[in-house]
Amino acid sequence: MPRIVTYNVHRCVGNDRRLNVARIADVLARLEPDIVALQELDVGRARTDHVDQAHEIARRLGMSSHFHAALTVEEERYGDAILTCYPERLVQVGPLPGYDRMRALEPRGALWVEVEIDGKTVQVINTHLGLVPREQQIQAAWLAGPAWLEHPHCEGPRILLGDFNATGASVVYRTLTAKLQPARNLAPKRTPTSTFPSPLPVLRIDHLFVSPEIRVTDVFAPFDPLTRLASDHLPLVMDFTVA
Hints:
Layout: E1 3-8, H1 21-31, E2 35-43, H2 53-61, E3 64-73, E4 76-84, E5 88-96, E6 108-117, E7 120-128, H3 133-144, E8 158-163, H4 171-177, E9 181-182, H5 183-186, E10 206-210, E11 214-220, H6 225-230, E12 236-242
Parallel strand pairs: 1-2, 7-8
Antiparallel strand pairs: 1-12, 2-4, 3-4, 5-6, 6-7, 8-10, 9-10, 11-12
Helix pairs in contact: 1-2, 3-4
């Protein structure tokens, strides 16, 4: 059964303030995922020893990877990635719109990869929204529109996932659930899915949204000594089949 994980890895710096890419890879390896969506990755940045974190985590997991830099400063990049062991192709990457009244906000982006699972193509979109509510609303509307979820090629089985920095009571959540279904509501049993902050998670701000062709069998946020330490978010895991 396929398993997908979304994980904000906080540039691989844990709650002990230690940079440890191998620890993040270990968290993921224990979960045995087939597809991984990562947020807050550093690639070639001085602050994290110039490591290509997307490539290194993918190498340790034996997966291919696609990285999108939401922020680029000379050779230094920061952004999100999709990793998978399935046959795949990159469909699209791009920035998300900001909030014009606050021009100093961190740039945000999204990337879209098509994967083949048992002969069926699944569209996977990974994103990381901003921190300001109005900014988030603009970005969610952009994702829900013709550039992404309503794109002519975004049809059939679809999964939108990532760190949305917004709870289930937000406009962002309502905007996206008008297009796709929240995976946690489809799981046969309810398990904790709060992911932030990882030492004592009380907020559900990482989400998975799916189309009707995705049959959800489980959604959970693994809470153990390793996941509590490795990042400021817990990973969020979904097991599923494709109709």
